[in-house]
Write a structure and sequence with these properties.
alpha+beta; 3 domains; disordered N terminus
C-alpha cells in the first residue's frame, strides 16, 4: 500500500508538470506578446517549485539560456533539458517528454499557508522558549527545552522536550532569515485575534531576551538575539545560517530530502528571494549563502537509541531491543572511499544516491540541513521509550533519569 501511494504521488506531480505546459503557453514572459520586450524570468514561479532547474552554485540563482528560459535537469543522467521558446508569444514551455526531477515539499508546503498560520506557530515556539528552565540543542540541532511539570501527587519534576513542530520550526526559520534574530514578532502586527474574531486583539508574545540569555548557552545561542542597533541584524551570519539549516530540517519530512532547489524555492515563496527590476533573480536579490561553510565533524559523536539485539550469528532476536550508544560517524568503521565516514543506517542518502557533500554556499546549506534531517529521523525511529510515570521523586535522580530518556520527544 505504501509503495502504491508513493507512485501515486509521483505520477500526480509529474502530471501536474506536464499538464502545466498548456498554461505556460499562455504565459507571456515579456508582458506584450511579440515585440513586448525581453522574456521575464517567470518560469521559476511556474516550474521551479515543481522540478529541479540548473542553478549557479553560490546562491542558487537560475541559469538561463539565450532566450532567458530556465534550464531543467534530466532525472536519467543529469544532463540539461532546454525549454521550447516560442518567439510569437515570447514564452517558454517544457518539452512534453521531459524526464524531470520532482522537488518534493512535503510538510514544508506549510510555507504556502496564509500568513497567520506561521505567525501563530512562531508565537507557540516563543512561549515554549520563555517557559524553559534550560535551553540546549538536541542531536539533530533542534531546540531542546528543560521544562517543569507537576505529577498527580502535586510533586514537580523535570522533563526535556524538543521543539519538534514542523510549522514552529518553519516559522523560526522565516523569522531568523527575515530579521537575523528571534526578537519581536514574526510579521508587523504585535496583536492577534484569538478565537472570536470580534474579540479584542491580544498582545502577542515576544522572546524574553534576559530569560533566554540566562538559561541558554551564549556560545551557542547569542546570534539568535539582536546584536545590532536597528530592528534587523542582517545579513545573516554563518551562525544564523547554521541555525536556519537546523530549523529547516526540523520542519521537513523525516523521509524527505532537502536540496538546493527546495531551499531556493522556499526562500522565494517566503519573499526572502525577490526579482530585480528586469524580472530576474540575481545575486543581490536572493539570500546570500556565501558565508556558510559547514563542518560535518560535529557528527563525530554517538546518540543514545534502541537497536535490535543480535544473537551470536548476527541475526536479530525477534522482538528484542537494547539501549546503546550508536556512532553517527567513524572513518574506521565506514571508510571514506565507500561511506565517507558516515553511518549508513543514519545518512541514508549518502549511500543510496552517492556522496553529495559540499561545504559552502547554498549546496553546503542544503547538505547541512539534510544531514540534520537524517539524524532527526534516525533518533525518532530508534527512540528510547519514555520513563515510567511512577518513579519516586528526588530532584537530582529524576533530572538524570528524564535526561536519559529525552530521545522519546524527538
Amino acid at each position: 500500500m505504501r509503495m502504491n501511494m508513493k507512485w501515486f504521488v509521483v505520477l500526480t506531480a509529474l502530471l501536474m508538470v506536464l499538464s502545466s505546459t498548456a498554461m505556460m503557453a499562455m504565459a507571456n514572459k515579456g508582458g506584450g506578446g511579440k515585440g513586448g520586450g525581453p522574456p521575464r524570468s517567470d518560469m521559476g514561479d511556474l516550474y521551479g517549485d515543481l522540478v529541479e532547474i540548473y542553478r549557479e552554485p553560490a546562491n542558487g540563482v537560475p541559469y538561463l539560456d539565450e532566450n532567458s528560459c530556465e534550464i531543467l535537469i534530466s532525472a536519467t543522467d543529469g544532463s540539461l533539458i532546454y525549454m521550447i521558446y516560442d518567439q510569437d508569444s515570447n514564452s517558454c514551455t517544457i518539452p512534453e517528454d521531459a524526464d524531470v526531477i520532482e522537488v518534493s515539499f512535503g510538510r514544508l508546503n506549510a510555507v504556502r499557508a496564509p500568513p497567520h498560520v506561521l505567525i501563530a506557530a512562531f508565537d507557540e515556539a516563543i512561549n515554549a522558549l520563555n517557559a524553559a528552565s534550560e535551553i540546549t540543542l538536541d542531536d539533530g540541532g533542534r531546540f531542546l527545552l528543560n521544562r517543569t511539570a507537576v505529577d498527580a501527587e502535586g510533586n514537580p519534576y523535570y522533563y526535556w522536550k524538543a521543539i519538534d513542530s514542523p510549522r514552529e520550526n518553519l516559522a523560526l526559520y522565516k523569522k531568523l532569515m527575515t530579521d537575523g534574530h528571534l526578537e519581536g514578532n514574526l510579521g508587523d502586527d504585535p496583536y492577534a485575534n484569538v478565537g472570536d474574531p470580534a474579540a479584542e486583539p491580544v498582545l502577542r508574545p515576544v522572546l524574553d531576551v534576559a530569560h533566554f540569555q540566562a538559561v541558554a548557552d551564549a556560545n551557542i545561542f547569542d546570534h539568535l538575539v539582536n546584536n545590532s542597533a536597528g530592528p534587523q541584524d542582517l545579513p545573516p551570519t554563518e551562525e544564523d545560517l547554521e541555525s536556519g539549516a537546523y530549523f529547516m530540517a526540523a520542519a521537513g519530512d523525516k523521509t524527505g530530502h532537502i536540496t538546493a532547489d527546495l531551499v531556493f524555492n522556499l526562500n522565494s515563496i517566503m519573499g526572502l528571494n525577490t526579482k530585480n527590476e528586469s524580472g530576474f533573480y540575481d545575486q543581490s536579490t536572493v539570500v546570500n549563502f556565501h558565508l556558510f561553510d559547514m563542518d560535518r565533524s560535529k557528527y563525530e559523536k554517538s546518540v543514545y537509541v534502541l537497536v535490535p539485539e543480535l544473537n551470536e550469528t548476527g541475526a536479530w532476536i525477534f522482538g528484542h531491543w537494547v539501549e546503546a550508544y550508536i556512532e553517527l560517524m567513524n572513518y574506521s568503521k565506514w571508510p571514506e572511499s565507500t561511506y565517507n565516514g558516515s553511518n549508513p543506517d543514519v545518512f541514508t542518502w549518502d549511500i543510496e544516491e552517492g556522496w553529495a557533500f559540499e561545504n559552502e554556499d547554498i549546496g553546503g546549506f542544503a547538505q547541512a540541513s539534510d544531514d540534520a534531517l537524517r539524524v532527526i529521523a534516525y533518533i525518532h525511529d530508534q527512540r528510547v521509550p519514555p520513563a515510567p510515570v511512577d518513579i519516586p521523586y528526588t530532584a537530582t535522580w529524576q533530572h538524570k533519569y528524564q535526561y536519559k530518556y529525552r530521545n522519546w520527544n524527538r
